[in-house]
Amino acid sequence: MTQALDHLDPERLSAYIDDELPASEREVIRHHLAVCQACALGVLSATQLKAATARAGRRFAPPPDALARLTAQLHQQPQTAAPIHPIRRIAWGALAAAILLAISLIGWRQSHEANNLSAELLDQHLASLSSGAAPQVISTDRHTVKPWFQGRLPFSFNLPESLPPDMTLKGADLTYLKGQPAALLFFTIHKHEVSVFLTQRLGGPDLTTLPATRSGFAICSATSHNLRIVAVSDVNLADLNTLLAALVRVQSPA
Amino acid sequence: MFALEALIDTPMRFRDSSQRAVPDDRTRAARSADFEQLALPLLASLYNHASWLTRNHAEAEDLVQETFSKALRAFDSFAANTNFKSWIFRILRNTFLTSRTGIAASRTVFLEDTPHALDTTDGGPTPEDNLIRLDSHAALQTALEQLDPPLREALLLCDVEEMKYRDIALILNIPIGTVMSRISRARRALRDLLRPQLGESQ
Fold first, then answer.
1. B192 at interface of A, judged by CB pairs closer than 8 A
2. Average pLDDT, chain B
3. pTM of the full predicted structure?
């Protein structure tokens, strides 16, 4: 118990806010913080610095042409070696659509649908911005949001325990994408509104040919084991990808 | 400071690849799709981190591109239930170390963690220690730029990439205690850089 009187040295303080200490030591520190205002302030200040560092450190987003080249590289890894030509301002989605277009009518239909789909996504996002109508579930609590969808959707999904800094869950709605039921989640990232659509991977709309931007809004998509996830927002792409990644990460593989 | 094998892109000793059968074309395509699925969400993070390492857009892109092709080639040695993010960040870092910029950077000697017990004398934090300016995003970015690269690298992996010390230790190829002290030093250095000058803003 005498340990409770020891002030926090910088390393322990750092490890404490990073949640890297064993439970017993955390407990001792918590006792100390309850009685030591200076250390409590130190923890508060360190936490603020950590959050600010997370924002300031997330600084470099790939320029659109670099993003297009890198996503294209990932997508066509198996063929390898084909040099990727710089294509300015065309996201790989458009590139993929163009290739498919040349190959077959099916390709044409897919890109056509992708266009429709991106319009549909954007419309829904804009509707949520402008209507002022509250979503059906207003909650920042994942334990409220997730169960609400039970029985309303033919699939389930997970929400992360904690989101990256300055990202908040605002609420959720039930919606339809290309006639398929979808969960629509509302987030904010630094005051920017974000709509995230979750649909079933099997039988869900094809996202591979979605354009990366439409009317100035970024559209990002990812897939997990059984879900397709699309995010639409005017926030920067790096942050949008971070949110997507956080969502993909918590979807269970089995 | 770095063992030679750390410079070569041995993507961690993640289990045995020996037991896995030689993949035929179909499973190779499936692996490649798996890889895309895992790597795509990390693209922005990898690019951001590569930019901090190289401080140059073109080099950052090259670095991420090379990381992707190396990682895919080594993907068979990646075990499905291990941490893909730290695995690919380690490849990114090793690739950087063998690049021209990385080799140049490694010539700068970084003094590792001299004991600093002396500079904390009586240990009691003073309220002034907490007085820093966090209102300016730009000031913090400038301060981050001024950090020693090894300190910055550890701090960014912790705060921006939200990795555990254990994973950071693997990526940087240093003991976990060194990770802890680098992060703590980085934060104190940031504080010093952000502390308002006396009489500057009243």
1. no
2. 79
3. 0.56
Rounded Cα distance, B137 and A117, in Å: 37
**Where in chain B do CATH 1.10.10.10 domains reside?**
132-194
pLDDT given at position A92: 58
Contacts of B127 in chain A (CB under 8 A): 38, 41
Residue A199 backbone dihedrals phi, psi, to 5 degrees = -130, 170
- State the CB neighbour count (10 A cutoff) for residue A11: 18
Number of domains in chain A: 2
CA–CA dist B141, B164 (Å, integer): 23
Residue B121 is predicted with a pLDDT of 46
CB proximity under 8 Å: A 208-237 to B: 222-224, 237
Across the interface, whether the CB atoms of A48 and B160 are under 8 A apart is answered: no
Hey, which CATH number is domain B9-106, 3.40.50.300, 1.10.1740.10, 1.20.1290.10, 3.40.190.10? 1.10.1740.10
User: Distance (Å, rounded) from C-alpha B69 to C-alpha A57?
Assistant: 26
The percentage of residues in chain A with a pLDDT greater than 70, rounded to a whole number, is: 79
Q: Answer whether A164's CB lies under 8 Å from A243's CB.
A: yes
**What tens digit of pLDDT does each residue of B150-192 get?**
999 999 999 999 999 999 999 999 999 999 999 999 999 999 8
Assembly ipTM: 0.80
| Average pLDDT value for residue range B35-54 | 94
| Distance separating alpha carbons of residues A96 and A237, to the nearest angstrom | 20
Judge: A63–B57 Cβ closer than 8 Å, yes or no.
yes
Pairwise pLDDT comparison (A8 vs A203), residue with the higher score: A8
Query: Which CATH architecture fits B132-194?
Result: Orthogonal Bundle (1.10)
